[in-house]
Amino acid sequence: MSTVEIKDLHKSFGSLEVLRGIDFTVESGQVVCVIGPSGSGKSTLLRCVNLLEQPTSGKVIVDGVDLTDPDVDIDAARRRIGMVFQQFNLFPHLTVRRNVTIAQERVLKRRRDECDSVARENLEKVGLLEKIDAYPPQLSGGQQQRVAIARALAMNPSLMLFDEPTSALDPELVGDVLSVMRQLAEDGMTMLVVTHEMGFAREVADRVVFMDGGVIVEDGPPEQVIADPQHERTREFLRRVLHPGT
Amino acid sequence: MSAVSEQEAPSPAEPRKGLSPRRKQRISRGVQYALLVVVVVVLAALADWKAIGESFLNLEVAGKGLPDLFTVALRNTVIYTLSGFALGFVAGLVLALMRLSSVAPYRWLSVIYIEIFRGLPILLIFLMIGSLPLAFPGFELPGGVYGSAALGLGVVSAAYMAENFRAGIQAVPKGQMEAARSLGMPHMRAMISIIIPQAIRIVLPPLTNQLVMLLKDSSLVLILGVTAAQVELAKFGNDQSSTYANPTPILVTGLTYLLITIPLGYVARRMEARQGAGR
Q1: What are the ABC transporter domain coordinates in residue numbering (chain A) (predicted)?
Q2: Do A152 and B183 touch (CB under 8 A)?
Q3: Does A155 contact B176 at a Cβ distance shorter than 8 Å?
Q4: ipTM
Q5: How far is B82 from chain A (nearest CA, A)?
């Protein structure tokens, strides 16, 4: 079954049309990377999948639930969709432990000890169990992002969205975050990743989607889209990303 | 090239006209010191030191105010201030949330409230509260004078605090709300657990200043007509000074206010500085 199904999605900000008819699906267990120049609408697309942006028209179906249906319980739907932001967005006034447990406790109504063991398990997974009592501002960017991943995983999502998760990191910290994401992909998590990391996309993605000007230009396996692009715009973009300065 | 540099650099050999700037500055500073000394000497000569000592620094009269100065007057001042602050805090938070609501009438109500109560003197509010029983016969605020004082100080400080809270909430980065919502938290839950705690931290310095203002404004409670047991600092000082026909108690009362306002102001500035450094 498709985890994500997007049909003729349009999104405008005022008179600016950012998404101009997007159709695509993410199958369960797939890793799909969305690439494209800035301003191409890829982040907006991702934010439409959990309705942080309200689509202007079209359908967004996640786990068989049409999120654009006005009667749908959006809070319930979002519990099943993990989101990782470019700026991490950890809660700075709460400890790492509380960051990972607060939504479990308040939203899923789990018992305290269960919240805590789920938090430990997921912090272990991202390799930061020893930081459980630290506050986010005491952590490096890479550590914060890994805590953010653990926070999302603690809700047992069926889908994880990543919005340029490594773009705000110092280059030497990118690797740790990518290896956590790689592990997540190996464990069979369904992932939709907006990224500029071509190496990651080529190696981990089942499919790569190239967007430009609010439409999907190319959609296929990475060996095709990255190694042998069919469209001139894709080729132009990849040339600039892979060989900057030429 | 050479013409330009000749124009710009005055020749050091050329004799200066009048005094050098440094000399002028030194003379001006000397005049300022001299003026200060003259004023102090004249005031000291004109003042009747014996009378000042007896009227303002009369330890005997000051001692008569004890221990009521602290156990009654200061205690009441603190009670009036804190109860007004607590009411203003809660009401201000609600008004701030209304001000940011997506329901337009809530926004209007909040704006109207804030504009009205920021624009009225507290003295007038107390007079109005005193006349409430005229509008609602038999109506009595719970807590008597204490209730009226809390209400009067609360409704006014709520208007100021609402604006502080609104600014604080808006200063929390947008990503915080998005992260909370993406974890499935409803809007109100995200506000309570994530946004408001951060907003309160941001507005702690202005809230502390608000507390200092309230402490001073609590002196206006005397207009409500208080008994000896309900008296606060300012009225206590005034009453004592009438009783003993000596203004020393007023000075003592002033010092008691400063005992609280100066440390509080210091705390507020410290918090402000720390926040400024953290950003």
Answers
A1: 4-238
A2: yes
A3: no
A4: 0.94
A5: 26
